[in-house]
Amino acid sequence: MVENPVSARFYTLLEREVQRFVRRPWNTFLPPMITNVLYFSVFGVILGTRIQEIQGFSYILFLLPGLVVLGAISNAFENASFSIFHGRWNEYIHETITSPLSYTEMVLAYVLSSASRGIVVGVIIAVIGAFFTPVGVEQPFYLVAFMLVVSLLFAALGVVGGLVAKDFDHLTVMNQFILRPLVFFGGVFYSLEILPSLWRTVSLLNPMVYMVNGVRYGFLGYSDVDPNTALAVLSGLTIGVVALDIAMFARGYGLTD
Amino acid sequence: MTLAIDATDLEKDYGDVRALDGLNLSVEQGEFFGLLGPNGAGKTTFINTLVGLVRKTGGEVTVFGNDVEDEYREVRDSIGLAPQEFNVDRFFPIREVLMHKAGYHGVSEAERERRADEALKLVGIYDKRNTRFDWLSGGMKRRLLLARAIVTEPNLLILDEPTAGVDVQLRHDLWEVINRLNDEGTTILLTTHYIEEAERLCDRVAIMDSGRKVTVATPEELTERGSDTITVELRDPPASAPPLDGLSEVEDTRLEDDRLAVRVAGSGGRVAPRLLNALEDRGHEITDIDISRTSLEEIFVELTEGQRGSDEPDGDGTGEDGTADEPARLAGEAR
Ligand SMILES: Nc1ncnc2c1ncn2[C@@H]1O[C@H](COP(=O)(O)OP(=O)(O)OP(=O)(O)O)[C@@H](O)[C@H]1O
Ligand SMILES: [Mg+2]
């Protein structure tokens, strides 16, 4: 009855999930392009000339890694949460969950496809940024590692979001009230060095700080925090959230009556 | 041989609603099995526990000997489901939807295309293969659900009201496809509100109500349980209905003009010759005779209303099912 090993099932779902956003580039890739052209123009070019250098980098250059992270994680999160929620809403996720995929295969397909969308968007933003300011890659290993981990982490969080949401507004709420504040206070737009020490300490509780600084370390070779610690903490967090995803699928949370 | 489906004391609560209340049901391999019951009886809930869309609250169910929770992958691999509600992927053209479904079941890439095309041709919507689900007509959507259910070549095909709201032509087409699959060895579980459909297709039917099985039997056995009515036309009708004491099957007699209607338990065909003899012995001349059977539909209504109207059926009496005392109860009830 089973003609192919496990991989055929898994790759079918992975491919389906990737096709879902690749075939709709106007909905998936164009919006972050436009947004980031605006960010770079306003914050980098127009305002940036009036902001002094941060740790020896022009403001636009300091900003670039933060915008890459912001684009990657919000797209990874949105992809996973939307795909799962839309599938639940229209019940076509039943096609997947009544099939003989293991719960781990289901989760990995959703997480990997969503993370890949996040990474593609991150690359697009970096390329756009390079049109505004010359940028190099000082620490390629860290850049790749952090981009992978942050995209996977937010894809995995998106799976949780897609499972717990009760209607479309909840997805917006998660984005606006959780993701955005974390990002804005996560050192995308400023260096922690400029904060009073109390706020600097509080900021260190924000996981976004480690992501932004990790990717910034990859691009610029500068970070407010230790990149190795950051990578270890984020990797642990990612594994934890993926495990939570798998447990939720196995329990049928949000998927079964 | 292991059973295709074996449910023991199956329970499902949705909050306060008890949808399955100790259901015991077994379906043999290769059977064409009908599941009948009024709205809300728990048919869809039962089906959904098999494929993992509903988590049972208690009891056990196996599909081809595999537990639906512990061996969920084996179970899901063996089932093709055409659900009651449309739940089809809206992003992709339907041919790709079928290919995806086959892929989830581990079918190789080349084989997926072949199967998708074959299934679409079988249900007669091949020319719509590049259309999205939303743009199909209602009947075509039903057809697609069947195509999606069979594209994985399941050993157990479950059809939850596949003919609800479809035209006569499609209904006959569906029957033909399903019958052929059954002849080739596929076990079929069908729910329907068209009783004559079950009567015509199914080897056995279960009637369920309020989350429990009321009875299981062949359609013939069920209609046997009802009372038939023999109507005879008499040349010189008497003033009142003649007594027919010699015939123990007779439940009731009624005379209207020249027509005598005699209700008998069991098969009217078996009683008719003796009834005619008895009437002729009394000097009546018979000009015409007609035997009408109770339809399965009438039996169905009685069985399910009986459940509803009477007190809760007692726990121990029902046990495995309430079959043993049904005929007596049916016969005893006023029509
Ligand atoms: N998701 C759900 N949440 C709460 N109650 C439910 C849910 N699904 C079904 N029910 C209830 O469970 C009972 C059985 O419903 P089910 O859908 O299994 O019936 P059915 O026999 O398939 O009926 P129909 O012939 O109308 O399709 C009903 O009382 C129904 O209201
Ligand atoms: Mg139903």
Automatic annotation (TrEMBL), chain A:
It holds the Pfam family ABC2_membrane. Keywords: Membrane, Transmembrane, Transmembrane helix. InterPro entries: ABC-2_transport_permease, ABC2_TM, ABC2_TM_bact-type, ABC_2_transport. One of its GO terms (molecular function) is ABC-type transporter activity. NCBIfam families: PRK15066.1. The lineage of its organism: Archaea, Methanobacteriati, Methanobacteriota, Stenosarchaea group, Halobacteria. This is ABC-2 type transporter. One of its GO terms (cellular component) is ATP-binding cassette (ABC) transporter complex. It is found in: Membrane.
From TrEMBL, chain B:
GO terms for molecular function: ATP binding; ATP hydrolysis activity. It holds the Pfam family ABC_tran. Gene3D superfamilies: P-loop containing nucleotide triphosphate hydrolases. Residues 5-235 form the ABC transporter domain. InterPro entries: AAA+_ATPase (IPR003593), ABC_transporter-like_ATP-bd (IPR003439), ABC_transporter-like_CS (IPR017871), ABC_transporter_ATP-binding (IPR050763), DrrA1/2-like_C (IPR025302), P-loop_NTPase (IPR027417). It is an enzyme of class 3 (hydrolase). SMART domains: AAA. Residues 303-335 are annotated as: Disordered. Residues 312-324 have a biased composition (Acidic residues). Its EC number is 3.6.3.19. Residues 326-335 have a biased composition (Basic and acidic residues). Keywords: ATP-binding, Hydrolase, Nucleotide-binding, Transport. Transmembrane segments: none annotated. Belongs to the ABC transporter superfamily. This is Trehalose/maltose import ATP-binding protein MalK. The lineage of its organism: Archaea, Methanobacteriati, Methanobacteriota, Stenosarchaea group, Halobacteria.
